[in-house]
Every structure is written in C-alpha cells, then in structure tokens.
Amino acid sequence: MSSSIPLEAARRRTFAIISHPDAGKTTLTEHLLLAGGAIRAAGAVRARGETRRTRSDWMKIEQERGISVTASVMTFDHDGLMFNLLDTPGHEDFSEDTYRTLTAADAAVMVLDAAKGIEPQTLKLFEVCRLRDIPILTFINKMDREAQDPFDLLDEIAGKLALDPAPLYWPAGSGNRFKGALDLRTNQFIPYVRNADDPTPAPVAFKGAAISSYLLPEEIEELTDNSELVTGASKPFDPQSFLEGHMTPVFFGSALRHFGVEELLAGLGAFAPPPKAVSAMRANAQTHVAPGEKEVTGFVFKVQANMDPNHRDRIAMLRLCSGKFQRGMKLKVQNTGRQLSVNSPIMFFAADRELAEEAYAGDVIGIPNHGVLRVGDSLSETGALRFQGLPNFAPEILRRVRIKDPLKAKHLKKALEGLAEEGVTQLFRPMMGADFIVGAVGQLQFEVMADRLANEYQLEVIFEAAPFAEARWISAERADLEDFTGKHRNAMAEDIDGQPVFLAKSAWEIGYVDERFPKVMFSRTRERG
Ligand code: G4P
User: Fold this and answer.
1) Residue-by-residue pLDDT tens, the chain, 529 positions
2) CATH number of the domain within which 34 lies
3) Per-residue DSSP letters for 242-290?
4) Is 347 in the same domain as 230?
C-alpha cells in the first residue's frame, strides 16, 4: 500500500555521532545500542594503539563483543521508531570519510568530554554539520569524572559554535561527587548509582521528601540555585530552532556508566527529524524528492571493501531518499545509465547482517557490487534523478606512488582506482609523466593504503614526496579552461572521474594563479554526480 511509504519514512531517525577521539563515541554507540535493545550486554572496549587507530570503532566493538557490527550503519527498532546509527571513523585522519557519512545523516549527536569541552576535531565536524544544516544534540560525557563547570561548557558551546545550548538536564556534581541529574522540564531527579551492580533507582520528585535519600541538604540547595540560574540564563528549548541548526538540546551523562543514555535516545526519538526532502536534478531541472514519494531513490555515500580480503567485491552504502525499496528491485545509476538488480542487499541489524526485504527513506542498504557503484552515485528506478551535494574534498597531503616491481604497473593502476573508488583516498593522473599522485586527508591513510596494497593486491609500493602540495578542481568556460590548461600542462591532472585538477606547489601559488585567471574557478571541493 503506497500510503504506508510516508508513514514508514516518518518513523526513521538516521543519525551519526561526532566527537574528538577519546571523548567516548565508541562507548556511547555501544550504550545506545544497549538502550535500544539491539545488544544485550556492554563491556569495556579495550582496543588500543594501532588497532584502535586503523580500525573503525565498530570493528573494535565487534572484536571485543563478538557481535557482528562490521558495518557502516546499525539499525534498531525501538519505541515504534527505526533508528539508523551511522558509523563515522574514529581517527581524525579519516575525516573525509566522516564528512561523507554526514551527508547521509539527518541529525548528529555531538559528544563532548566534560573535562575537555570542545576539542579541535569536534569543531571541524561541527562545521560540516552546519554546512549541511544537520541538527545537533549535545551529550556531555564522563560526568563520573572531574568535569569543567557546566556553565563554562555551555558558554563554550555558545561562543565557539555560535549555537544556543538548551540544557534539558542539569548535573548534580561531577567525579566522585556526581549524584545524578535533574530533568529541568519535569523537575524529576535521576539518581546516579556509583556501584554498577546496584539496580538503577527510579527518578524521584526533586521537591519531594525522597530526594533526601540521594542528595545532602547543601547539594539540594546548590542544584536548586544552579537550575534556577540556568533556566533564567538560557533560552528554553525550541524544537524549531533546533531543526534549523541554531539550538542544541544538552544532555549530561556517563556513557560508560550508562547514565543519561536512555534520556538521550528518548531525545533523539522525540526531537531528531525524520528524513526530509532532498534537492536533486531531473532532466536539467531542479527538484525536491520527498521521502514519501513512490519512486525508489537514493545515493551512495560510501563504498566499503569486503571485510574478507579474498573477496574483491565492494559494498556500496546506499542512503534511501524515497519510496519503498524491495529486494530484487532494479535500480538505475544516473550517470552511467547502468541498471542493476539489487538481489542481495544487506541491512545492518545490530545482531546480524540480514538480507533487506524492504527499506524506506532514511534507511541505508549495502549493495554488493564489483566496482559498478561509486561514492556520489544517484540511483533510482527511472535513473533520471541526480542528487546534489556530495562533495569531494581537496586532500591535505599529496604523495607520488612508486611501485617496486615496474612489471606490475598495470596492476597498480587498477588497485589504486579500486581504493579511490571507496572514496577514502583520491587519485590524480597527471597529464605529463606516468606516476600517479595520491591525495589523502592524513598521513595515516598512506600507511593503511600501503598495507592494503600489499595484503589485498600483493603490490609493494613506496609513497614519495610529490612535487605538489595542493590540489584544486578547476572549472571555466571551455576556451578559458583550454587556455589555462595549455599554460599549466606540467601541473594539470585528472581525478578518477576525468575532471580537471590543478596541482600547485603551494597554497600561495593557488592565490597567484587565481588572481591571474579570474575566469577560472578553483575549488576545494567537487560535487560528484
Ligand atoms: P572514542 O570512540 O570517542 O575515541 O572514545 P571511547 O569510547 O573509545 O572512549 C575513550 C576512553 O574514555 C575509554 O577509556 C573509555 O572507557 C572512556 N570513557 C568513555 N565514556 C566514559 C565515561 O562516561 N566515563 C568514564 N570515566 N570514561 C569513559 P580507555 O581507558 O581509553 O579505554 P578502556 O581501557 O577503558 O577500554
């Protein structure tokens, strides 16, 4: 029945967690899954060092917990809603991948370490959310440790992010003196139990007699003063302002101790938006695709290599934007016109990978394929639709790839293209010379890449300093483009889609050519599709 399509879409909550490494994203992920009933037990996540940096956080969880979460998304049905939690890689070197994942999220949870506040990576990720108008819920974590003054933390959110913090709860103390949190809307106090084996007590009325079992008189007084102060000083939570990205509801808790997590999940259910209409092009005309529309549409935001290195197939992560997807359905790729029968789509339930029988806007399905699908591809039943706004980011580090055995050069080309198709690194083919230039957002990606080339493709490579430091996509009228290209042959390259890229020796050089060629646009990002 087609009328169920808008209803199904409306009960989706697709979100990601953003944070600086170590703020507690992995722990919170695990505890949200626990709160959502997707897993039964949580345990300490202990991966450290190399494993910790190179693996996705969820792979860590999988190793530790023995559950199958080797996925880019975890789906769980809770309280009448379908939650899709998108994994964002933990290490800052993978930020481009993270940016892409955020294109598929409708909301984000920003995790702050209560002792550290806003850290550099938090800020970077926040900027991406703002760019995409993604509403943000804030979870101030690790209240069971000594924390900064919560008022200072709110000031920091307001000052550094230009975002109105609207606390929904207020903590009673922190660290050894952490006693719980007051629900500022209901005036119920949620006690924190120090001993994890003790049962969690039910919330009690802050103004009632039972509060004295949890708080000392001076603590009651302090919490009364603080809650009055914060209610007077901050704007009340306004759902509309949150949806527009001006305001963030603030939760306090301890992911590790499962405190405040249920409240956060309830907040996500109540405030985070269902999928909204997405802008797209259809036959050269601008349009909006509403989640309740009948045609099945979506875009690929990530391509993941098969976890089994012996299998070369890849899994394209398709974020659905409309319609009711059914297994076996045929979808067309807009830019190539290729049609594929999606016979074995994967949906990622926490407990297991399952074949997706049906899915709706907001859901993510994994489509196994052999390199046909790429990051940024738009898929739909008609193949006529192209979604906008999946940017490629200018890499921050460029390296020249050299192979130890020159007889394997052809093999190298295929391998590099394969890795670039996953969208984690970028590949540039200079117009002059035979060496490839690989771009990445961080140094670690080159190490991971060398490792993967050796293990998955049996290729030994060296990444050398490249004669370039910056890459910019260029665009202009044809004559201007030819003029520019003609004058800069040694610095011109193509990206994996054949788009022209200017490679510069320094940022200064970009400023210089930008001034001399006013009709040429130099761009740090390129929208695919
Ligand atoms: P990340 O994914 O954001 O990088 O952070 P992760 O969850 O891995 O947490 C980083 C460290 O912070 C871990 O400690 C974790 O146990 C701890 N942590 C997370 N949430 C809380 C919290 O609410 N309270 C306290 N006290 N600690 C928290 P670790 O020592 O690095 O690892 P482990 O040995 O405990 O596993």
Assistant:
1) 456 999 999 999 999 999 998 999 989 998 998 898 877 665 433 333 333 333 444 444 444 433 333 457 888 889 999 999 998 765 555 556 777 788 899 999 999 999 999 998 888 888 878 877 899 999 999 999 999 999 999 999 999 999 999 999 999 999 999 999 999 999 999 999 988 778 888 999 999 999 999 999 999 999 999 999 999 999 999 999 999 999 999 999 999 999 999 999 999 999 999 999 999 989 888 999 999 999 999 999 888 776 555 666 778 889 999 999 999 999 999 988 899 999 988 877 655 555 678 999 999 998 888 878 888 889 999 999 999 766 666 677 899 998 888 888 888 988 998 888 777 688 999 998 878 999 987 777 788 788 888 888 899 999 998 889 889 999 999 999 999 999 999 999 999 888 999 999 988 899 899 999 999 999 887 765 4
2) 3.40.50.300
3) HHTTSEEEEEE-BTTTTBSHHHHHHHHHHHSPPP--EEEEETTEEEEE-
4) no
60 bridge partner residues: none
Ligand 1: atom nearest CA of 30 is 7
Residues 383 and 411 in one domain: no
Buried b (16+ CB within 10 A) or exposed e, 30-55: bbbbbbbebbeebeebebeeeebbbb
46 and 171, same domain (yes or no): yes
Domain shared by 127 and 139, yes or no: yes
Listed residues 358, 388, 418: the one ending a domain: 388
Query: DSSP letters along 203-248, please?
Result: PEETTSGGGGGTS-HHHHHHHHHHHHHHHHHSPPP-HHHHHTTSEE
Residue 241 shares a structural domain with residue 362: no
Mutation choice for ligand 1 from 28, 33, 45, CB with most ligand atoms inside 8 A: 45
The CB of 21 under 6 Å from ligand 1? The reply is: yes
- Residue ranges making up the domain that contains 481: 392-528
CA gap 172, 192 in Å, rounded: 9
CB of 488 closer than 6 angstroms to any ligand 1 atom: no
Residue among 20, 22, 48 whose CB has most ligand 1 atoms within 8 A, to mutate = 22
- With a 6 Å cutoff on the Cβ, whether 122 touches ligand 1 is no
What is the 151 CA–ligand 1 centroid distance (Å)?
A: 23
CB of 256 closer than 6 angstroms to any ligand 1 atom: yes
CB distance 121 to ligand 1 below 6 Å: no
Note whether 418 and 351 are same-domain residues.
no
- CA 26 to centroid of ligand 1, rounded, Å: 8
What CATH number is associated with residue 507?
3.30.70.3280
**In this structure, is residue 93 part of a structural domain?**
no
| Model confidence pTM above 0.70 | yes
Sign (positive or negative) of CA dihedral 229, 234, 235, 239: negative
Q: Which atom from ligand 1 is nearest to the alpha carbon of 19?
A: 3
